[in-house]
Design a protein that fits this description.
Radius of gyration: 29 Å
CATH superfamily of the largest domain: Glycogen Phosphorylase B
Shape: globular
Helix content: 40-55%
Number of domains: 5
Number of strands: 22
Number of helices: 29
Oligomer: single chain
CATH class of the largest domain: Alpha Beta
CATH architecture of the largest domain: 3-Layer(aba) Sandwich
Distance between the termini: 66 Å
Length: about 750
């Protein structure tokens, strides 16, 4: 059986990994199709594909792909407006009366005409917006799916199409509609606990909807109009792996790694999405202060704060100013592979209690068996108490949360958990109702796979277009043409941006499905620019565009060729004649050299697809044969003006000068040094990327390019990179040598600084 998964977010890979493997083991051909494959999922996907003989993955067809027609732009815009309007109108129902934040978010996405019509319809009460919503959905159901989607499904010929985000992704609705019209089986396994309440409507009915529990089954019927016979309760397959995980490190090892005292209990704070908690760091600081002021047992507990992976930008540069509080991982991480999964699981497993506002981590913590707490904070009222799915966690008859109505009540409850006085039956009661309703020992994954196999074994005829489809499309065609013209005009009239040529190149590379060769480089400028901008850009480019690495040739100088390890499929020197550039897409280095300041303004916390820099430690090269190095030494390289510092340094420790060696040998020496000291320049950045501390000496502060320092401070200020210290010359060489040695011994968390 051929099974096509249409997936929006790489987090689905983490939760469906075992499902993919089970389908592969049963002999089914599985293809995972993404709108875009992010770097945090790329390696995981490749590993799964390597280990599963019948599994493949790739990108969904985009603008310009086979089957795409220019005249479909207007229809796509019109369909999105109809769906966005009906999504907004659902939040005018009485069941969402206490959800103003959800309503405001949907209203902002709705067309002004729909908002005005909703106001007029509301005069007659809830029935007015309800009738308007039904009208919009009736119109949308009569539109054809985009032709490139239909072409993609025809070419792929799947037996079953599964979509993971149908209630919040218009594109996935197109795939269900196209599959229904082609007679291909369709299923919607509801991925997360809030997908049916907190997102949009299901705009195209699949044959089968797989849900976790009877509560979600009721949501599917009541909120989305899905016939109950199409809904099947299986349990939360996306949480099965949580019942199987085990800690990867001891509690003492975790405390040592994150910097907390091992003799005190740990309270884990799990952060929420940006929608739920847009300014969570300020709340966490107040919460920690309240704990410390409450006395024992909370006065000295270790506090571990885990940023939400899609709201981690809020935590960039944040300090909690508490020796017993740590932010870890500092910028959050998706638990996609073994190390990041271990980090996440261990932080819960070794905690005495878990605290959060409104996040799925509160469910995961219940599975691990930890008491889970929340406080009804006023600043999060609309996105916490104003969401339907949060009420399940606090339900009187089966909810597992300890809910503090005030900070004082919350701290009293938390203190009881830290002292071991929590009720373990709360978690079990919740799990039996919400996560594994068929039994705590009944995993949902086999049931999921059996449901898909059963669906694929059925016979199905193509669904007919709804009644009056042709007249409706004829009547709406003027609106579609207007929408297409306006979209084209917006593109034409959009102000030119400094990086439009770079954006255009990236779009071209993403659209290309022909496998044309790509030639990047050469970079012939300064080595600092090559290390901090050009190479990280190429690494970002091949991660951001699926399949690019396999068709990219990199042109690089021999002296820096080793720095390009893992980038591109081929590396050639600039002077080497090659036919690779004939008919290839060229990526000139000048595009990046001209934008150094713009790239330097980025941050690791910025969305990956926007920051355009991706760093990785450089490999440790082999030493040239016959070269013997001291057991411990400092690598040095000084300009003539600073040679007196080198002489002073040589009188205090063993030093190895880099000047006699070519750049590859310099890298090998640097990688084995306990630090680098020298005149500020490329060797400083090379040292940092090799994981070695570096001290760069400058004659004056204005002798340093601030853009370069911003890049190092933002991207390279933590392990596995070496810390960089930039210092001004003093009056004496001996003083500078002493200061350099002291800085090399400074904590590795030190950031770039000048003084």
């Amino acid at each position: 059986m051929r099974i096509l998964f249409v997936i929006k977010h790489p987090a689905s890979v983490r939760s469906l990994d075992a499902v993919f493997r089970m389908l592969d083991a049963r002999g089914h051909r599985v293809h995972l199709a993404f709108g875009g494959i992010k770097p945090d999922a790329h390696e995981v996907l490749q590993r799964i594909a390597d280990e599963c003989s019948l599994l493949t993955f790739g990108s969904l067809p985009a603008t310009g792909s086979p089957g795409w027609r220019r005249d479909s732009v207007g229809w796509t815009v019109l369909s999105k407006r109809l769906r966005g309007g009906s999504d907004f109108l659902r939040y005018l129902e009485p069941s969402y009366a206490d959800a103003p934040a959800l309503r405001a978010r949907a209203e902002a996405r709705a067309h002004p005409l729909v908002r005005r019509a909703a106001t007029l319809a509301g005069v007659v009460g809830p029935a007015g917006p309800r009738a308007l919503r039904r009208g919009l959905r009736w119109l949308d159901a009569r539109l054809e799916p985009p032709p490139h989607v239909t072409r993609f499904l025809r070419d792929f010929e799947p037996d079953v199409v599964l979509v993971t985000n149908l209630a919040r992704d218009s594109v996935q609705a197109d795939y269900v509609r196209a599959a229904n019209r082609l007679g291909i089986h369709t299923a919607y396994p509801v991925f997360s606990w809030d997908n049916l309440t907190n997102k949009g409507l299901v705009h195209e009915l699949p044959e089968l909807v797989l849900v976790w529990n009877e509560l979600q089954a009721d949501e599917a019927v009541r909120l989305h109009g899905i016939p109950r016979e199409r809904v099947r309760v299986l349990g939360a397959w996306s949480y099965d792996h949580w019942f199987e995980w085990r800690p990867s490190r001891s509690r003492e090892e975790l405390c040592r790694e994150v910097g907390l005292r091992p003799d005190r209990p740990i309270v884990l704070y799990v952060c929420s999405s940006e929608f739920v908690a847009p300014d969570e760091p300020a709340f966490v600081r107040r919460w920690i202060e309240a704990m410390r002021a409450s006395g024992e047992p909370l006065a000295e507990v270790g506090v571990l704060v885990r940023p939400h992976p899609r709201n981690s930008g809020r935590w960039a540069g944040v300090s909690l100013d508490d020796p017993q509080a740590a932010i870890w991982p500092p910028l959050g991480e998706e638990p996609l592979e073994a190390a990041s999964r271990g980090n996440y699981y261990d932080s819960i497993h070794h905690a005495a209690a878990v605290v959060g506002i409104n996040t799925s981590a509160q469910i995961e913590s219940a599975i691990v068996g930890r008491p889970v707490h929340t406080v009804l904070a006023d600043e999060f009222r609309e996105t916490q108490q104003g969401t339907l799915h949060f009420q399940y966690l606090r339900a009187d008859d089966f909810g597992h949360l300890y809910v503090g109505r005030t900070m004082e009540e919350h701290l009293a409850q938390l203190a009881a958990s830290v002292e071991g006085r929590a009720d373990p039956a709360r978690n079990e009661r919740f799990l039996r109702r919400f996560v594994r309703p068929l039994g705590l020992d009944v995993p949902a994954r086999p049931l999921y796979v059996e449901a898909v196999e059963e669906l694929g074994a059925r016979t199905r005829s193509p669904a007919r277009a709804p009644v009056a489809s042709s007249p409706v499309r004829l009547a709406l065609s003027p609106l579609a043409r207007v929408a297409a013209r306006r979209a084209a005009r917006r593109r034409r009239e959009a102000p030119l941006r400094p990086d439009d040529d770079l954006r255009s190149l990236i779009r071209r590379l993403r659209r290309d499905r022909t496998g044309v060769r790509v030639v990047a480089g050469p970079w012939l400028g300064d080595e600092t620019g090559e290390l901090l901008y050009w190479i990280p850009f190429l690494r970002w480019l091949q991660l951001a565009i699926f399949g690019l690495r396999e068709r990219m040739t990199v042109v690089a100088r021999e002296q820096s060729a080793a720095w390009y390890e893992g980038i591109g499929a081929e590396l050639v020197p600039p002077e080497s004649p090659t036919s690779a550039s004939e008919g290839a897409v060229l990526v000139p280095a000048a595009l990046i050299d001209e934008r150094r300041g713009q790239l330097a303004a980025g941050s690791p916390a910025v969305t990956f697809l926007k920051r355009r820099l991706e760093f990785a430690p450089l490999g440790r090269p082999d030493l040239p044969s016959g070269l013997d190095l001291p057991e411990e030494f400092v690598a040095v390289r000084f300009d003539p003006r600073d040679e007196d510092v080198g002489s002073a340094l040589a009188g205090r420790c063993a030093v190895v000068a880099l000047e006699p060696f070519e750049r590859p040998a310099q890298s090998a020496v640097l990688a084995r040094a306990r630090g680098f000291v020298g005149s500020y320049g490329p060797a400083c950045h090379l040292s940092v990327l090799l994981g070695v501390p570096a001290v760069g000496i400058v004659p004056a502060r204005d002798g340093v390019d601030e853009n370069d320092l911003r890049v190092v401070a933002a991207f390279l200020s933590r392990a596995p990179y070496g810390p960089l210290h930039v210092v001004e010359r003093s009056a004496g060489a001996a003083e500078d040598a002493e200061r350099a040695l002291a800085l090399l011994a400074a904590p590795t968390a030190s950031l770039v600084r000048a003084g």
